[in-house]
């Protein structure tokens, strides 16, 4: 009897795998295949921070794996204090934990920074790459993320809103509507939800992003995988111009910039972006 294929992220089973002293929490869904799509999540995020509209669209035809970094959610250990260490942890999870030799990558924000370090160090591991809301190592003004983040968290507390409504979306009528809709979608899963990230772990991740932004650029010419880059035109966390920088430095990459949108442009425009991302990943496989 064939196993039922789960294509809803809200129903994806919670799993763990142990690699040496560490335990990684992950979820998987979609049809089984040899080369899955591994998702790399953003600053302060757990497994519950992925937009189900995007995950579900991709999981209709691709095998999707999401995971918690060490020290976050249901994973063990402490949050790594550098982006390249987080990439090393991801490599151990993927190759030793899951036994995979090749993956496709979907990444957002800090996840895109980790994914870049992973590809630069292990270029043969990644077949196809999606980088959204992110920028390159040494990216101009990336180190200003701390002031932007804490300022928006303060505003969210005053207005009793989710910080992501401020950090990810413009504060015009359309941005506010999109922000509330996005935050609402994140509550659709009701079982096996992760604990929120600790303040200490959040601070460690922020410092890692600042160090990434202030360090010497990586040689992105080693990235020969088909690459899709996307962002909003008014990203205040990782300046939109850095997406254009990535596009220039990764040969043959595609770039989508969504109008009148911020860091979470792909979530505001999910109805347009989800099928584009799904087709890109299907084409990479084909």
From TrEMBL:
Organism superkingdom: Bacteria
GO molecular function terms attached to this record: hydrolase activity
Tell me the ranges covered by the AB hydrolase-1 domain, including all copies. 37-267
- Database matches in Pfam families: Abhydrolase_1
Query: Which InterPro entries does the UniProt entry name for this protein?
Result: AB_hydrolase, AB_hydrolase_1, AB_hydrolase_fold
Q: Which UniProt keywords apply?
A: Hydrolase
Q: Does the keyword Hydrolase apply?
A: yes
Methyltransferase among the record's keywords?
no
PANTHER family per the UniProt record, alphabetical: AB HYDROLASE-1 DOMAIN-CONTAINING PROTEIN, HYDROLASE, ALPHA/BETA FOLD FAMILY PROTEIN
State the protein's name: Alpha/beta hydrolase
The species this protein was found in = Microbacterium phycohabitans
């Amino acid at each position: 009897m064939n196993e039922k294929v789960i294509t809803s992220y809200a129903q994806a089973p919670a799993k763990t795998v142990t690699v040496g002293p560490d335990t990684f929490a992950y979820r998987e869904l979609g049809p089984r295949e040899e080369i899955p799509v591994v998702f790399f999540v953003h600053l302060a995020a757990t497994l519950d921070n992925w937009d189900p509209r995007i995950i579900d669209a991709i999981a209709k035809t691709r095998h999707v794996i999401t995971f918690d970094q060490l020290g976050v959610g249901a994973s063990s250990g402490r949050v790594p204090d550098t982006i390249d260490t987080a990439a090393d942890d991801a490599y151990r999870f993927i190759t030793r934990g899951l036994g995979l030799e090749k993956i496709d990558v979907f990444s957002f924000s800090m996840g895109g920074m980790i994914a870049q370090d992973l590809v630069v160090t292990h270029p043969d591991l990644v077949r196809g790459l999606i980088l959204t809301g992110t920028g390159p190592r040494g990216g101009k003004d990336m180190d200003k993320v701390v002031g932007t983040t804490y300022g928006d968290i303060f505003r969210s507390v005053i207005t009793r809103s989710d910080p992501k409504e401020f950090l990810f979306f413009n504060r015009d009528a359309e941005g506010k509507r999109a922000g509330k809709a996005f935050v609402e979608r994140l509550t659709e899963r009701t079982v096996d939800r992760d604990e929120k990230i600790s303040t200490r772990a959040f601070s460690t991740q922020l410092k890692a992003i600042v160090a990434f932004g202030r360090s010497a650029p990586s040689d992105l010419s080693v990235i020969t995988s088909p690459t899709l880059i996307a962002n909003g035109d008014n990203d205040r966390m990782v300046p939109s111009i850095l997406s254009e920088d990535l596009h220039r430095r990764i040969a043959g990459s595609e770039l989508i910039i969504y109008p009148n949108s911020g860091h979470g442009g792909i979530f505001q425009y999910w109805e347009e972006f989800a099928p584009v991302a799904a087709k890109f990943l299907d084409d990479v496989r084909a």
